[in-house]
Structure formats: C-alpha cells, structure tokens
Give the backbone structure.
Amino acid sequence: MVFLRHEKYISLSVIGWLVLLLTACHGRPADIEEMQTDTLAVVADEPSDSLMLYDDEPEPESADMLFADFFYAFTTDSRYQQQRVAFPLKSLDEGGEAMTKADFQEREPFASQEFYASIYDRETDLAVQNDTSLNSVAVERIYLKAQTTDRYHFQRVQGKWMLTGYDTKAVGATPQASFLTFFGKFVNDTLYQRESIVFPLRLVSEAEDDDMGGETELTEGEWPEFRDQMPLPTEVMTAIDYGQTSLSENRKILLMEGASNGLFVKYKFDHTDGRWRLYEIDF
C-alpha cells in the first residue's frame, strides 16, 4: 500500500451524514493527487552521507520518490522504521541530548494514526506535496492542549529518506503560532468552537463528476452531529511540513488526509476582526 495514494472516498460514517445534506455527494473517484515542491525548511546540520542504512532486502525505488509514500511505510512497518532512523537521533536544541533507540521506542512518536494534517495559506500551495526532488521534510507532533510541538527532521541520505534529527518548541515560537493557538482552543472548547464558525457553514463537495459535486450549508443546530463524524484531533495533531510558505496571517487551509481510509477534508479558516473563524469545509 502507499500512503495517501488511494481513491478519495469519505468514510462510510461521514457519507451517512453528508447524504442528508448533499444530494449524491459521497466521495471522489479520482486518485488523490499527492503534490510537493522543494521550498522546504532545511535541518540545521546536514547529515553525513556515511549513515548506515541497514538494508537487508532490496526496496522498491518508488518508496523513496514521494515523501508521503515513504512516510506510510515508515509509520506502518516497525522494522522498516528502525532502518530509517539515524541513531542516536541528534537533538537540534541547544544543549539537547541525542535520542537513543530505546528512548525513541518508548516515546513512540509515530504510532499508527488514522489521519495526518498539513497547513497551507493558499490552494496552490498544496502543490508542495508532489515534488520528487524534495530533500528535506519535517513532521510535527503538535500537542494542542500543552501548546508544544516536537519536530522530526527527515532528509534524503544516499537517495533514501532518513530521520536525522529532532527539536522541541513552544507553539508560540512557530510560524503558525496564531492559528495553532486558536485551533487548540477550537477543538477543545465546544462553546468557543460554535462562536468561531460562520453559520450557515458552507460545505463543498469537490467530486470531479459534476453529478456528484455540489454545495450546501450546515446550520448551527446540525453542526454537533456533523462534527462528530469529521477528523478533528483534540490532543495531538501530526502535521507534515513540506516547506510550504507561511506568510498569510489571515487565511489557513487545514488539510486532513487519511493514512489508509481515503479521508480527504479541507477546513478553511480566515482571520477577521481580530479572530479566526471556520467558514468552509471541502471534501
């Protein structure tokens, strides 16, 4: 299997609710386009080309083409994961300690999850996911209540993706500070959440078949049941940073993609009158 390389179908539980809202809007038959570009934040120190890769068996070249494909294998195959971590894992924090294999296994930073996030300023920025020339990608474990983030740095070494370092920061010290601070409260405070949604909420089906696509609106009363069917993490969010720019302070697209269930949802937020609001959901 390949991470995020399957058909765009909303999960059955979500379909059941959306059918009540959108006539015949039940997923997208086209393959998910996994888009990438090379505008990526680079790890502070380049890893040595002499890192041992521990290859026991030939691996398909395609596993190291798109980062998403590699990351799916990395998070679902523990043996493969151990081969692709440069132990002891270097800390990029000043005075930080390297992480041993035992430390890494105890922390389990990449335990299997149903979906992963990416944050963008514009629709065109999603093209960052499909560039096979990328040499550096960061995966963040964002602790939404504690407002801290562990950032894991991956680089190509001898043509293969390797986890080469990590660091820890407060959310307030990241480029997405304003949005992530808001989002942590948005997913954990239901009253604040309702106050931070533009009702009626616009729902857009992006089905390529015109007969399948469509738009509708969700009322405030319909939101709680709809929300319970959608992927909104409350404790920890795993976000992939392909190096997309973070320049806008007024618009954010939170893309949630399923690791193996075909989920593909875009939450669109804007910042007006001093606060963030959810104004549209695309699926």
Q: What stands out?
A: Residues 7-282 form one domain.
